[in-house]
Amino acid sequence: MIHVVLCDDHAVLRRGIRDTLTEATDITVTAEAASYAELREQLRTAACDVLLLDINMPGRNGLEVLASVRETHPEIRVIMVSMYPEDQYALRSLKAGAQGYANKAGDPMQLIEAVRTVMGGRKYLTAEVAQMLADSLAQPAAPVPHEALSERELQTLIKIASGQRLTDIAQELMLSPKTVSVYRARVLEKLQMSSNAELTAYAIRNHLI
């Protein structure tokens, strides 16, 4: 039996994923968490072979949580689950140590395949991610400015470009508005821009939103 733990701050999405996984007779969901704090507590007692981790977590984003899990529970196989386009986070996730990446907008049954694949010791790649990897090997892309951003800075850029106010971003990420303002300032400096309008245009041009 494959023991799976779900970590997603949206209860409805967790329920949908759990219902999908329970259709497989060889998979059981042993615990659920809505935050990194809850996940830490659950991993102390719950059996976990595979962790399905949402990349957009409040307080700490999924890639930061991934790094922590890799340090404390290196035996756990992690599949990042996200609504973000594969071309922005899939390769980052794999480079950070995830065994797979699945998009919430895809076929729910792919999650069962993903769990079985990583449990078998292989990486789980969607056709889109596999094509991206092949393209990057055949013709390495020139570095783009936003690759210099930290995960939190990139997250802030995407939310600003999506039209969210700093106060809304702060509330969603469980950070202070002042902290989000610091991230915004760093993004502007690194991208050599001066306004949200420029950030939005950049994000659209580089398919970040």
Automatic annotation (TrEMBL):
Domain Response regulatory: 3-119
Pfam families: GerE (PF00196), Response_reg (PF00072)
SMART domains (UniProt xref): HTH_LUXR (SM00421), REC (SM00448)
Top-rank lineage group of the source organism: Bacteria
Chain ranges of the HTH luxR-type domain: 142-207
Annotated PANTHER family: RESPONSE REGULATOR UVRY, TWO-COMPONENT RESPONSE REGULATOR
Gene3D superfamilies noted in UniProt: 3.40.50.2300
Transmembrane segments: none
Protein name in the entry: Response regulator
Keyword DNA damage tagged: no
